[in-house]
Amino acid sequence: MATFVDHVTLFLKAGDGGNGCASVKREKFKPLAGPDGGDGGDGGDIVLVADPNVTTLLAYHHSPHRRSDKGGFGMGDFRNGTTGATLELPVPVGTVVRDADGTELIDLTEPGMRIVVAEGGQGGLGNAALATTKRKAPGFALLGTLGDETQIGLELKVVADVALVGYPSAGKSSLVAALSAAKPKIADYPFTTLHPNLGVVQAGDVRYTIADVPGLIEGASEGKGLGHEFLRHVERCSALLHVLDCATLEPGRDPISDLDVILEELRAYPVPEGQVPLLDRPQLAALNKIDVPDARELAEFVQGEIEARGFRVFPISTVSHEGLRELSFALADLVERDRAEKVAEQEVAPRIVLRPKPVDERDFEIRVEGGTYGNVYRILGRKPERWVAQTMFGNDEAVGYLADRLNKIGIEDALFKAGAVAGSTVVIGPGDGVVFDWEPTLTSAAELITSPRGSDARLDDNHRATRRERKDAYFDRMDAKAEARAELEREREAGLWTEDAGQDG
User: Is 451 marked as a binding-site residue?
Assistant: First the structure.
């Protein structure tokens, strides 16, 4: 079973917002004491957090579907719904986050960095929050909106200062173990290392990290062997260390030919735009396994030729630790210089200016689309789409409230300018959306509710009949019934109808 995963796809569903509550408070001697519906709670967000204690994406490989909590619904007596808990997903430092189209969203290169990848739905307002001096007791509430449902890609790129590259079994893992306290798996067969190993090295006052990249072979940049899968982990490194095996027994191999193959693979690997090509970064060479007599002799023979190519060469032994101190301080010097250059670049970085949104910028756009029965006017925008999702379309008063909200941001005037007329088809939202037959004269909720604007029939002080009035009404009903019976009797005596005829019918 795999123990290291550096690329996964997550399927996320943020929590939906809770619905608001439409309720009227009822107390003794106050049958309609006013609206008291609470608001719905917001749904929980899904957040990625760069955690230095996490080193692999294995947990998300086995469980790629993640969901946050929903918001609670509002209740009467001004009780608001509970807010859904935020779901935090820890990822390793060095994780690149991409959307479903492959566009990079953020590079989590620092511990503690956070990004909201799926936003929870907004809770709907209860009728208590919607009450105004003109709308004293709304008979509706707003629905909660749906939380984001999306998929993202996570790609792990190891954050290390120095990358160790070389053929399989060149001694890279042994070098990590010798320079640091890391304990990678070490064996005497090729491709022992199946995932990058990190180690922390202390050289004087400088502390830096080294990464053991799985062995490269010829054609690795084209997908051969294991190196292609892990070459991406070299992208972040400040320097490269070529670990060359001087004691290999394979025919046709020597430190010079190994170095040529590795350099060609590094040259063929494309780095992301804006990064320094791999071969343009500082590089050192380490001739390993000089504790073997024949290997030491070979190292002395090829050292001059490698240095002639511009490399600084260090004969080392991970068994006897010979040459490791000089190598560690040389690497520390490269790392320290690279860090100083990055600080200088940050000091001259362009200033970021945040500009407020223009006052006259609209919150929506109208697209005119051709249809079978005429033009279709599509309204797109965060606000109108959210308002439509919050509307209880089975409630006429709620539909009128939606019309008021849309009119306030100028949608009706924009439809006029776009050429819409009475009866035109208007769609709010992408895709199927919500379809309306537009009526420009319907400008407020006054045409949809039975009571005048600013009043509510449920709160009217209706006249309550007195005992005398109820008694008179009762006698009037009895007199009317007696008169009806007398009229039937007169018709029977006149022969207009008989009881037998009625039974036959």
Answer: no
